[in-house]
Specification:
Order of helices and strands: HEHEEEHEEEHEHEHEEHEHHHEHHEEHHH
Number of helices: 15
Largest sheet: 9 strands, mixed
Distance between the termini: 88 Å
């Protein structure tokens, strides 16, 4: 080999080594945990933290947490070194934790001072994500929101003035495309709704996510210890001991440096199933939600020509996500107007008295929902009623559809009027809600006085 070629070979070899070293020191993931524990969820949050600290043994990913506490629940002073009741910022590593300073992005968080944050403030969530992406950059990002949820709001902050909430539609209004994530993990109850997913659909102007993990009914917190135990650069023996419930073979150990959002999200739903088989969870491909919306709006136009009495009957028969024991069913129907989207479309497609075009379009809706739902399951134990018609990988996501023409002494007016106090295309902030649902406004053409989307159809159905 000629001397000049030897020199070139040595230079290329050194460059390849440098590239390899850089790739191994560039984290694959940053996991952002927004722990809104200024309510009774504080007890579960400390189980989460213990699990994270014990489970994280590998490099390749960072775990950054913003944790809020409140008096009256947990008195834990060991897990994080003190029994604080304010809000703190932490980084978790293998068997250890480090309190962080918020620097210029979150200047209120200083290790030497106390600060009580409002976790119901979407601007705080926005800055938390910005902080994590700035100081802990990675190839991929996952945001976990951990607290209570009711379907249209999350993270009740009982210490905030007038009690604040983080509304699902508020995320798309306040957060920008810069805060978008690969995976959104909603470790709260009742958030697996089409309307929510559509707010966070992949787009170029506001917050979005490619994958969502969410539960339609009540649920409990994830098993973070086992989740983190399955993230390791040492993947020589890449198969775990447990059988994968959703796919063939054993559960896999993933290298966080190179695992994809698809792989990681599937690991998460596997571990969620392993730890809470009694509940119901789903993994959703949010790139499909826009097609679901279009198909349902097309179905709405056809439904407007059908008999209202038939649709009342179908809505009454569709499987709902009621769950609270000790609460009258009528109260649950008012507060939780969530019916299974796939079951709804399937019952329409099979109804003998409906037009063939309507039934054919309903089948298309079923197919589009099937594409949205990657994996789902329903345990039907504990507080959840049994369901005999739950199809895994199809059911598990709801659509807001109340028994709208029904009335009860618990409320003034119809169920539909009650739901419209927080749900719809218009601003609801005067009602201590948020409103402004893109699901309700997109496709609407008020000037033509016709049914153009599903929200308009519901309004037509229940106010005619």
């Amino acid at each position: 080999m000629k001397p000049i070629f030897k020199i070139l070979f040595i230079i290329l070899f050194i460059l390849s080594l440098t590239t390899t070293i850089y790739a191994q020191t560039d984290n694959g993931w940053t996991i952002m945990y927004y722990g809104a524990g200024s309510n009774s969820s504080e007890l579960d949050i400390f189980n989460d933290i213990n699990g994270m600290i014990k489970g994280k043994q590998s490099t390749g990913y960072e775990v950054i947490t913003l944790i809020d506490r409140i008096e009256g629940f947990s008195n834990d002073s060991k897990t994080l070194g003190e029994n604080f009741t304010d809000t703190k910022l932490y980084k978790f590593d293998a068997g250890s934790y480090q309190e962080l300073s918020g620097k210029e992005i979150l200047p209120e968080f200083k290790k030497e001072t106390s600060y009580e944050a409002n976790m119901g403030d979407a601007n705080l969530l926005k800055r938390f994500i910005k902080y994590c992406k700035t100081y802990y950059p990675a190839k991929h990002y996952m945001l976990i929101i951990r607290s209570h949820g009711d379907g249209w709001s999350m993270c009740p902050d009982n210490e905030a003035k007038n009690e604040d909430f983080l509304y699902s539609t508020e995320l798309s209004d306040v957060l920008s495309v810069d805060e978008s994530v690969d995976i959104l993990g909603l470790d709260v109850c009742l958030m697996a709704g089409l309307e929510n997913f559509y707010e966070w659909r992949p787009n170029e102007t506001s917050f979005s996510t490619d994958y969502v993990l969410a539960s339609a009914p009540v649920s409990q917190s994830w098993d973070y210890k086992n989740i983190f135990n399955r993230l390791s650069v040492a993947t020589k023996n890449s198969s775990g001991k447990q059988k994968n419930y959703f796919e063939e073979g054993k559960e896999k150990i993933l290298n966080p440096f190179n695992m994809t959002p698809d792989q990681f999200s599937k690991l998460l739903i596997e571990e969620i199933y392993d730890s809470q088989q009694w509940s119901s969870w789903g993994l959703f491909d949010n790139s499909k939600i826009t097609d679901v919306k279009l198909k349902i709006d097309e179905l709405a136009k056809l439904l407007s020509t059908e008999k209202n009495t038939i649709m009342y009957s179908i809505i009454e028969q569709v499987s709902g996500y009621y769950h609270e024991k000790g609460i009258e069913k009528v109260e649950q129907e008012i507060v939780f107007p969530y019916i299974d989207a796939y079951d709804f479309a399937q019952q329409i497609s099979n109804h003998q008295e409906l037009n063939q075009k309507t039934k054919a379009k309903a089948k298309e809706v079923c197919e589009s929902i099937d594409q949205l739902v990657i994996h789902s399951y329903y345990g039907g134990k504990g507080p959840l009623p049994k369901k005999d018609n739950f199809n895994e990988g199809k059911n598990g996501v709801y659509i807001i559809t109340p028994l709208g023409n029904k009335t009860d002494s618990l409320i003034k007016g119809t169920f539909w009027k009650y739901v419209k106090a927080w749900y719809g295309p218009d601003d609801k902030r005067h009602n201590k809600a948020h409103g402004l649902y893109d699901w309700c406004s997109d496709g609407m053409k008020p000037e033509n006085e016709k049914i153009d989307n599903f929200y308009e159809y519901l309004d037509f159905l229940f106010t005619k």
